[in-house]
């Protein structure tokens, strides 16, 4: 739980530090090739932080009945969302409109590998 909170705190800190540099419209969705295909107002950049908090709160409410597998899956999801947040901010500030596909696919592959590891290895 502390690791989840630390990951969320890191996402909040990074977002707050870079918020003034963001343009009025930021990319919110990226297609399979990494190109931004959905935009929204700057304030929507906080949406992923809200999702991270929601995931942590849901885990906390079910942690009595769930095992460590769920904790690892939740932690991986929260970390992936934090990474996505950093990519959105980097793309928005640079104005490149694209996350390099290799970076995108590597992150997603690591996420799924971690989830599979938590399913089959963690007891």
Question: How would you characterize this protein structure?
Answer:
It is a single chain. With 123 residues, the protein is mainly α. It is 65% helix and 10% strand. The protein contains four helices and two strands. It has helices at residues 2-18, 47-62, 68-94, 101-120; strands spanning 25-30, 36-41. A two-stranded antiparallel ribbon has the order 1-2. A hairpin with a 5-residue loop joins strand 1 (25-30) and strand 2. The longest helix is centred in the middle third of the chain and has 27 residues, at 68-94. The two termini are 17 Å apart. The mean pLDDT is 87.
Quick structural summary:
With 123 residues, the protein is mainly α. The protein contains four helices and two strands; from the N terminus they run αββααα. The chain has helices spanning 2-18, 47-62, 68-94, 101-120, and strands at 25-30, 36-41.
Secondary-structure element series: HEEHHH
- Residues in β-strands, percent: 5-15%
Query: Could you give the order of strands across the largest sheet?
Result: 1-2
Low-confidence stretches: none
Structural class: mainly alpha
Radius of gyration: 15 Å
Query: Which sheet architecture does the biggest sheet show?
Result: 2 strands, antiparallel
Distance between the termini: 17 Å
Number of helical runs?
A: 4
> Taking all residues together, what is the mean pLDDT?
87
Helicity, as a percent range: 55-70%
Number of strands: 2
Tell me the overall shape. Answer: globular
């Amino acid at each position: 739980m502390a690791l989840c909170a630390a990951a969320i705190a890191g996402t909040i800190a990074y977002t707050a530090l870079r918020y003034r540099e963001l343009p009025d419209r930021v990319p919110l969705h990226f297609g399979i090739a990494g190109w931004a295909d959905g935009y929204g107002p700057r304030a929507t950049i906080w949406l992923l932080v809200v999702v991270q908090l929601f995931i942590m709160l849901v885990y906390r409410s079910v942690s009595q009945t769930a095992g460590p597998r769920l904790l690892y899956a939740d932690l991986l999801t929260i970390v992936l969302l934090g990474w996505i947040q950093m990519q959105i901010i980097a793309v928005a500030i640079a104005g490149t409109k694209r996350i390099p596909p290799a970076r995108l696919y590597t992150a997603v592959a690591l996420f799924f590998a971690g989830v599979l590891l938590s399913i089959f290895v963690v007891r």
